[in-house]
Design brief:
- The structure is a single chain.
- Helix content is 28%, strand content 21%.
- It is an alpha+beta fold and 120 residues long.
- The protein has one domain: HIT-like (HIT family, subunit A), CATH 3.30.428.10.
- Strand 1 and strand 2 form a beta hairpin.
- The radius of gyration is 14 Å and the shape is globular.
- The structure holds guanosine-5'-monophosphate.
- Guanosine-5'-monophosphate binds next to strand 2.
Length: 120
């Protein structure tokens, strides 16, 4: 599978589509999800062209991987999410329900989030 340069997050990274940025550095952009599933719903993406967590882990540089995890920690700390807790999700591929083929981590918080998956 090759990276689709016209996926929605690639277009956000090129500023062709607006976003509500919550964090940005050389390697990472984080912004509010357009269709929030919880009071806090942030998407964290690498600026590099990676399709999935697998692609990112295999092909990103150590600097990019470190920057990504450090950004998640910075966002969580800045938003004070650890006190009440939060959830991170990365959907991958068809069964994972991934809609946008650019690696992203969802950060969800702000209410009790229930069980990890719906019953059944
Ligand atoms: P996935 O299903 O791929 O794990 O998650 C994709 C997420 O991207 C969804 O939660 C969806 O609401 C969000 N999303 C899709 N298009 C846009 C957009 O144009 N802007 C923002 N901020 N989020 C988007």
């Amino acid at each position: 599978m090759t990276y689709d340069d016209n996926n929605i997050f690639a277009r956000i990274l090129r500023s062709e589509i607006p976003n509500e940025t919550v964090y940005e550095d050389e390697h990472v952009l984080a912004f509010k999800d357009i269709n929030p599933q919880a009071p806090v719903h942030i998407l964290v993406i690498p600026k590099g062209a990676y399709i999935s967590i697998e692609d990112f882990g295999e092909n990103a540089s150590a600097e990019e991987i470190k920057a990504f995890h450090a950004a998640v920690s910075k966002i969580v700390r800045e938003k004070n999410l650890s006190a009440q807790g939060f959830r991170t999700i990365t959907n991958t591929g068809l069964h994972g329900g991934q809609e946008v083929p650019h690696f992203h981590l969802h950060i969800l918080a702000g209410k009790p989030l229930g069980r990890m998956l719906p019953e059944g």
